[in-house]
Amino acid sequence: MDVVVIGAGLAGLTAAALLRQAGASVEIVEADRHIGGRIRAVRDPVSNRALADLGPTWVWPKYQPGAARWIDRLGIATFEQFNDGDAVITGYRPAPFRQPVPGQDGMVRIAGGPSAFIDALAGIVGDARIRTSAAVTGIAEDGPDKLQIHLGSGETLTAGKVIVSVPLRVAAVSMHLPWAPASLLDALSGTPTWMSSQAKAVALYERPFWRDAGLSGRIVSRNGPLFEAHDHCSADNTTAAIFGFVSWSPEQRKKDPEGLRQAILDQLSASFGKAAGHPLELVVQDWATNSRIATGMDLSEAAQHPDLAPAVLRQPHLGGRLRFAVSEVSEISPGLIEGALLSGERAASELLGERL
User: Fold this and answer.
1) Where does the chain show beta strands of DSSP type E?
2) Residue 286 and residue 283: Cα distance in Å, rounded?
C-alpha cells in the first residue's frame, strides 16, 4: 500500500509512523520548512536541543489514556509543572498582589518538550520520506485506484491512499478538491484550528530567580500583555524560562510588534523584579502570521476551544482512499496533543483495516 500524508504535524507523523511500521510505503509532504505543525521549540543554536515550547506544552496522562499510551510507547519522560509559591495577580485590585493559585490536577510537561514526540515519530518515518517546502494545491482522482496530489511546484504525485493532516480551513482555502461535496467543504471551512490565532512569548534566563523570591512564575492578569504566564524551566533546570500567552489581538500584534515586546518586558519586570526585564532572549511566536496555520476566518473569530467536529470529517472519502487526520477531528481531546495522536492513529488503523 502506498500512502501520501499531507502535513507533518503530530497527527500526520503519527499516522505515517504507524503505517511505516506496518510495512506500507509512505511519503509525507509538508508545506512549511519545518515539521511539527503547531509544535515548535526555541532551540540551542549549537546543540539543537529544545529549550522552550512555542506551541502546546501540557498533557494530562492521568486523564488522557491515549496520550499516556503514546508517551509509554515512544519512551518519553514527563515531569510536573512547577507551581510552588505565589502567583502575581494584576487587574483585579488597584495594585498587583501575590497569592498561591492552584494548578490543574494531572497536568504535566514533557521532558524535551512536545518536540520529543515529533523527533521520535520522524525518526520512525525516516528523513528520506519527509519532504518540506512542498505545498499541496489540489487532490484529484486518477482512475478507480489512484489519487493525484498536485504540488505548488507543478509536480504531481500519485498514491493509492491519502491522509490530509493540515489545518482544515487551510485545506479548504488552499487545495482544489473538485470531488468534495458541499457538506464536506462546509465542515472544513467551519472547523476552527485551536490556538491558530494565538501568540506565545518565551523569556529565557540564566537561572530561575523568581523561585528564590517565593514566586511560582505564574502571572494572572486582566491588564496584559500576557494574560497568563507560567514557569517554563526544563526538567533538569538547565534551562530557566517563563512563558506566557499574549492578550493583544492579532491586529494589535501586527501593528506594533516592538511595542508588544517592550510591554512584555515591562510586565515581567513589574511581576518578578528588574532582572526579569533583561532576559537572555525573548521569543514571540505569533501563529496568526503563519498562513499555513491560520486563515482569515480564524483571525476574524473569537478564539474558542473546538466543539466536536462534524462526522463527515471522520468518514472516509473517495471510496475509502482519503481520510482527514488532525487534532480537531478527534472525538477525544479535540485540539489537544492527545487528540492529534488519536486522530493520526485512527486514520492509520482504518487504512490498515485493523486496530493498532
Assistant:
1) 2-6, 25-29, 41-43, 50-53, 58-59, 78-80, 86-90, 97-99, 108-110, 130-131, 136-142, 146-151, 156-159, 161-164, 199-205, 215-221, 226-231, 240-246, 281-286, 322-324
2) 10
Predicted TM-score (pTM) of the model is 0.96
**Cβ distance 15 to 5 under 8 Å?**
yes
Q: Are 175 and 136 spatial neighbours (Cβ–Cβ below 8 Å)?
A: yes
pLDDT per residue as tens digits for the range 310-331: 999 999 999 999 999 999 999 9
Mean confidence (pLDDT) of the chain: 96
143 class by beta-carbon count within 10 Å (0-12 exposed, 13-18 middle, 19+ buried): exposed
Cell of 245: 500567552
Distance of alpha carbon 14 from alpha carbon 323, whole angstroms: 14
Report the distance separating Cα 92 and Cα 87, nearest Å.
13
User: In 3D, which of 191, 182, 206, 193 has the Cα closest to residue 281?
Assistant: 206
- Report the C-alpha gap between 347 and 26 in whole angstroms: 13
221 contacts 256 by C-beta, under 8 angstroms: no
pLDDT class of 355 with cuts at 50, 70, 90: very low
pLDDT at 354 over 70: no
CB 293 within 8 A of CB 171: no
Q: What is the CATH number of domain 1-39+114-194+305-356?
A: 3.50.50.60
**What does the pLDDT look like over 1-22, one tens digit per residue?**
799 999 999 999 999 999 999 9
- In degrees and rounded to multiples of 5, residue 152 shows phi and psi of -60, -25
DSSP for 44-83 reads -TTT--EEEESS--EE-TTT-HHHHHHHHHHT--EEEPP-
pLDDT tens-digit readout, 160-192: 999 999 999 999 999 999 999 999 999 999 999
Distance, CA of 198 to CA of 206 (rounded, Å): 27
Percent of the chain with pLDDT over 70: 99
